[in-house]
Model the fold of this input.
Amino acid sequence: GAGVSQSPRYKVAKRGQDVALRCDPISGHVSLFWYQQALGQGPEFLTYFQNEAQLDKSGLPSDRFFAERPEGSVSTLKIQRTQQEDSAVYLCASSPPGFLGTDTQYFGPGTRLTVL
Amino acid sequence: ILNVEQSPQSLHVQEGDSTNFTCSFPSSNFYALHWYRWETAKSPEALFVMTLNGDEKKKGRISATLNTKEGYSYLYIKGSQPEDSATYLCAFIGLPTGANNLFFGTGTRLTVIP
Done:
């Protein structure tokens, strides 16, 4: 079956540009997560949705980062006025209803963002 | 900020060798530990979710053990094959658990030399 997909796979932006990263979760998955992986680091939590509700955005590094999931399926992570420190791989993951920490999160292949 | 550490950072082994690596995590407030395998240009793939102290899980040639009292998990690969080359990530979830916040280590990058 189809897994989690992300687009674009690679994005190069000039400093100051706005970018939008898309995530298509597995159909029927209620929970959706965004993570940021900087070079040499492990993935770090950014934000979490349950259906269309953003229940936790504590990991978003600044108010330039914004995520939405308006219809409870596709999600977009938007970064405004990109900075070089935003260069990272952005991972999206989804999980079935009732994730309580023991359900598997299914990851997409990530979007590699490079800010010049 | 939770400290989840993995060692070694990278590892080269010959095809056929067995190997293991470590994930260390806070022993207090443990809820679950996840292991993932991430091959280059692919999606991270879930290997195990472990919750009970003393738990041991196996998937083919890969197995994992869990010690929640001392805060570590080992991942073992028996008879390594080139297709095992990947980065292996562990991720910790602590109490109180929201339905979120996997805290990842930095990974162990395994290269199996044919």
Summary: Chain A touches chain B at residues 3-4, 31, 33, 35, 40-45, 48, 50, 55-56, 59, 91, 99-110 (CB under 8 Å). Residues 27 and 114 of chain A are 29 Å apart (CA to CA).
